[in-house]
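Researcher: I'm preparing a figure for a lab meeting and need a structural model of a single chain. I don't have an experimental structure, so a prediction will have to do for now. The sequence is pasted below. Please return the structure as tokens so I can convert it later.
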Amino acid sequence: MIESVIPFIVKCLPFIAICFLFLALLVHKRAISAPGWISIAGYCYFEATEYLALDERFDAFLVLVLLVLSLILAFIMLRPTLSERREEDSLYTLTKIALIAAVFYFPFAEITFLGDSLIFITAKITAIVLNIFNLGVYMVPPSCIYTNDCSFHAIYQPITIILACTAIQGMVIFIGLIFGVKAPIRRKFKAFFVSVPVIYALNIFRDVFVSAAYFEHWFGPPLDSFFIAHNVIARIFALLALIAIAYAVFKILPEALDFVEDFIAALKRSFRVHKAI
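Model: Understood. Here is the structure written out token by token.
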């Protein structure tokens, strides 16, 4: 009975979080957002267990970091009001950023039709690009990419595109940051176009690279090639790309950098207040 209820609870947690974050902004009381952050932490716990079950330790680590951060934020949102107005406002801006990111991410993560649609589009584009480079693949909807070499699949599995392969996590972070801070709408859209579409395009390149390395044995046997391409090269490339994109966004939207500085100051002041109490 409990095992059948847990999946339902996990699906509800992000939408509970969205409700609390929205309510906190609506009544301008940041303490109301605390249950929302706790709900996100609970969701992260179940996500981390799934990643660990799939032996995706890197992704599990990132989710666990978000879990800890969410619990810290829940604690901070319950602390007394800060004396510095800019630092206090940064906590509300963070709530707004989190709400926007959650609204764009969780429906794709928890509503099967939306998630599968994004996965299908990403897999389809990846297969098209692979064929443009004469790598000879075909797609089996909604998410599997096979090489035309039938003997390959007598031993090895196809490439399977999952939600993490769509780069939605990185895109929603920038969507939240860009549209969560106060800035002229023209510069917001400029920052959007140098980040979100670029992230998606680079992610297609990443999926093509990993698939080609796997099917063509670029770094040795297919499984070794996949590991090196996916877990080493692609992750280093993704990190460097995100740093470059973040730099471009901060140049276009200095208000976003101001928010980061104010939020860090708010964190420090919140813990000082706690020690004083």
